[in-house]
Amino acid sequence: MAHPTSIAELPEGVVNPGAPDRPELSVIVVTPDNYDTIRNLVNALRAQTARRSLELLIVVPQAESLRAEASDLECFWNWRIVELGALQTVAHAKSVGIRHASAPIVVLTEDHSLPEPQWARALIDAHRQGWAAVGPAIENGNPQSLISWADFFIGYGQWFDPSAAGEVDSLPGHNTSYKLEVLLKFGDRLEKLLGAEHNFHQELRARGYRLYLETGARTFHSNFSQIKRWVPYVCYSGRVYAAERGRSWSPFRRIVYSAGAFLIPLVRLKRLVATVRRARPDLLPNLFLPLTFALIIDAAGQWLGYTFGGGKAANQLVELEFHRITNSSVPDSRANRSATVVQQQP
Prior knowledge:
This protein is an alpha/beta fold. Helix content is 46%, strand content 15%. The chain has 2 domains: 7-223 and 331-343, Spore Coat Polysaccharide Biosynthesis Protein SpsA, Chain A (Alpha-Beta Complex); 228-321, no CATH class.
């Protein structure tokens, strides 16, 4: 492995010899600080069978602080550094990265969600069928923790290793791929829409766009395993979701939803119990209380969002969104195994 070098010394934007005329997929990677935060993710991207068709767009507050390793980036179609300035929200960073993409398809990633080697090729092939958005199946990347399982089922349970691919109503947030031309049609609204992708997917479907779940693309998502980080994340996420959902509503409708916010745990718990019973019935007895607790916290966040708007919840999420594997109380064995395999490649 090469020693870190100043970003100014790296051959940014060099197209890999023998690569296609243009990249097939632009991968948006966001780091709040430096390359160490995204190292595991980049290793997983280097292991992709379609890596020579990938454009890597690394969005970072200050380019000079990235300290990337050139040997890690030489295998892609090309790579570019997008200097952001202050990292206000993750959605803002991703929307900036999207506007620098040159491939017809863009995929969003997280530093704690590590895709399998066929992931990129499966997404690219599925997009040839004309879908506006294609998402992967999601696996639990740190399954040793009960809190991790509760967090996983709340956020990604409906896409947990499903038995068949097909058209769906929504796709996993922060991990979905989109046609670039579709994203750019939303103009200045894109940042807000990416802040609550479930709402975004509803709007896409309302406009006639179709969404597809590609089970040939799988990623291992590491979840919170420390309650002190999990609780504020659930609350802030609920607030951002509700604020964006009710942005165009009348005051009366917002009041109605605010008054009914604490009915949300009853509705969602029933669905989650059915999902856990289908996917991992052995976990259900131990997950019931953590799921109930988290849904109450989420409902409190949604009440705040409907009543007072988003406030600074999206900004506060930035501090919790990254370094999830590092801060996890349980080591991520899949992340470590993925990194080892990549480092052995020529």
